[in-house]
Write a structure and sequence with these properties.
Largest sheet: 6 strands, mixed
Shape: globular
Mean pLDDT: 81
Distance between the termini: 40 Å
Strand content: 5-15%
Structural class: alpha/beta
Number of helices: 10
Order of helices and strands: HHHHHHHHEHHEEEEE
Number of strands: 6
Length: 293
C-alpha cells in the first residue's frame, strides 16, 4: 500500500473516531486552513492586490504553528515546511489543490472519491501533507478534548483572523465591502477546479472591485451589491445598514452597476460610450449547485 492510500485511510479512520464535538472543532480548523489557502491565492491575484491579504495570511500561519506547538509539538517543523511551500506555490497548482480541499468542507467527499482523484506529483505530495496535518490535528483534538481551554483560545483566534465568510450564508455579510471580500468571491465562485467556468461572473465581480473607487471606504461600510451572473443566479454581499444598494449584471455584453435608488446607471467605464438606460431584471432563479456566500 503506497503512502497516499495510507494517508487517506488514516484520515477517514480518525474522522470516524471523532464524536460530534470533536468534529465541530476540527471543522473550525478546516475552515481556517481553507481561508489560509484563499489568502495565498488572493495575494497572487494582481487585480485584487497582495497588500490586502498578507496580514490575514500571516496571522493564520502563526495560529497554525501555535496550535501544533500545543497539539503536536514534534511535528511543528513539518507543518512549517508545508505551509511555506504552499505560500510559494504557483497559482494554477493552488487553484487545483484548493478545489479538492474545498470538497472536505462541503462534506461531499469520501475515501473512494479521494483515492480516485487525479493529481500531478507535486499536488499529490501537497495533498498527502494536507492529510497528514489534518489527521494529526484530529488526533490532538481527541487527546486534549474539545473543551480544553488552551485549544479553545487558539480556535477563537483562528475564527477572528479568518473572519466570517461562509458558503452557507445566503448573503455574505461583511464589515466593509472591499477588494479583499470581493476577491474572495472570485476565488470561491470562479477561481478553482470543480467550479463551472463563468467568465461573465468573473468580469462582474471585477467590475464591482473597480467600482469601489467611486466612493469612500466609509460609504462601503453601509452598502450592498447584488450580482446576477449569465445564468441569472444571484450573489449578494452586504455591510452595515445596507443604506447604499447596487445591482451588477451584464447588459449588451458588458458589466454595469446600477444604484437601486438612482435613476441613472453607472456602466463599466468606456471612454467612447455614454451611460445607458436601465431595464428591469427578469425573474431570478437560484442554481441548486451554486451556494451563495
Amino acid at each position: 500500500m503506497d503512502d497516499f492510500k495510507i494517508r487517506v485511510m488514516n484520515f477517514f479512520r480518525t474522522l470516524e473516531a471523532c464524536n460530534g464535538e470533536q468534529k465541530s472543532v476540527f471543522n473550525d480548523v478546516l475552515e481556517a486552513f481553507n481561508t489560509f489557502l484563499e489568502e495565498v491565492l488572493l495575494s497572487k491575484h494582481i487585480t485584487v492586490g497582495s497588500s490586502d491579504t498578507i496580514n490575514v495570511q500571516e496571522l493564520l500561519y502563526n495560529d497554525f504553528l501555535e496550535m501544533f506547538r500545543y497539539l503536536q509539538p514534534d511535528m511543528v517543523e513539518k507543518l512549517k515546511i508545508f505551509l511555506n511551500r504552499l505560500k510559494e506555490a504557483k497559482q494554477a497548482h493552488l487553484n487545483s489543490l484548493h478545489g479538492k480541499i474545498s470538497l472536505f468542507r462541503t462534506k461531499q467527499v469520501d475515501e473512494k472519491i479521494v483515492l480516485d482523484m487525479k493529481m500531478k506529483d507535486q499536488e499529490r505530495m501537497d495533498f498527502v501533507d494536507f492529510l497528514f496535518v489534518t489527521t494529526n490535528t484530529m488526533q490532538g483534538i481527541i487527546q486534549r478534548g474539545p473543551d480544553d481551554s488552551t485549544l479553545k483560545r487558539i480556535l477563537e483566534k483562528m475564527r477572528t483572523h479568518r473572519g466570517t465568510f461562509s458558503y452557507q450564508d445566503e448573503v455574505l455579510e461583511v464589515e466593509e465591502i472591499n477588494k479583499r471580500n470581493l476577491g474572495k468571491m472570485i476565488i470561491r465562485h470562479v477561481g478553482h477546479e470543480g467550479v463551472d467556468e463563468k467568465p461573465d461572473l468573473r468580469r462582474l465581480l471585477q467590475a464591482c472591485i473597480d467600482h469601489l473607487q467611486t466612493e469612500s471606504e466609509s460609504f462601503w461600510r453601509n452598502a450592498s451589491i447584488t450580482i446576477y451572473d449569465e445564468d441569472d443566479n444571484m450573489y449578494k454581499i452586504a455591510s452595515g445598514t445596507k443604506k447604499h444598494q447596487f445591482i451588477c449584471r451584464m447588459k449588451n455584453g458588458e458589466p454595469f452597476i446600477k444604484d437601486k435608488k438612482a435613476v441613472s446607471e453607472h456602466k463599466k467605464p468606456k471612454q467612447s460610450q455614454p451611460p445607458s438606460t436601465a431595464h428591469g431584471h427578469p425573474h431570478k432563479t437560484q442554481d441548486k449547485n451554486c451556494v451563495i456566500c
